[in-house]
């Protein structure tokens, strides 16, 4: 009885652990947290241009970079995100946010000069 019980327990333990081992660090292919972040940033860029906070030219440049981020996200997500891909994408999103903040606060419409 013991000879059958120990292999059965080992097999069930290995089967239970297999999905956790196979999962990539950043999630699975259906992980859309990056999509949401990029979409929210695109919406903010559109609203800023509509309110004349940034120029049309600045909007075009920022949106072009957001589209590039979408392409990178799609490429990375094909096999699931590795730790490096997830960190790289998060860094790129943060850089685009910083550029947007810069453009939004550049005092282009200031009457001081």
Uncertain segments are 18-30
Number of helices: 4
**Which H/E pattern describes the elements?**
HHHH
Q: Give the overall average pLDDT.
A: 81
Structural class: mainly alpha
**Percentage of residues in strands:** under 5%
How many angstroms separate the termini? 90 Å
Helix share bin: over 70%
Radius of gyration: 23 Å
**Overall spatial form:** rod-shaped
Report the count of strand segments.
0
| Largest sheet entry | none
Quick recap:
This protein is mostly helical and 113 residues long. The protein has helices at residues 2-22, 33-50, 56-77, 83-104.
Topology:
Blueprint: H1 2-22, H2 33-50, H3 56-77, H4 83-104
Could you characterize the architecture of this molecule?
By secondary structure, the protein is mainly α. It has a domain of 74 residues. About 12% of the residues have low confidence. Helix 2 runs parallel beside helix 4. The longest helix is centred in the middle third of the chain and has 22 residues. It contains 4 helices and no strands.
């Amino acid at each position: 009885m013991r000879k059958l019980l120990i292999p059965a327990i080992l097999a069930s333990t290995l089967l239970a652990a297999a999905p956790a081992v196979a999962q990539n660090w950043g999630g699975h292919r259906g992980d859309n947290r990056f999509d949401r972040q990029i979409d929210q940033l695109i919406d903010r860029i559109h609203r800023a241009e509509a309110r004349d906070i940034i120029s049309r030219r600045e909007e075009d440049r920022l949106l072009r970079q957001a589209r590039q981020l979408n392409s990178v996200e799609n490429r990375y997500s094909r096999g699931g995100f590795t730790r490096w891909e997830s960190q790289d994408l998060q860094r790129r999103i943060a850089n685009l946010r910083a550029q947007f903040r810069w453009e939004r606060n550049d005092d282009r419409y200031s009457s001081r000069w």
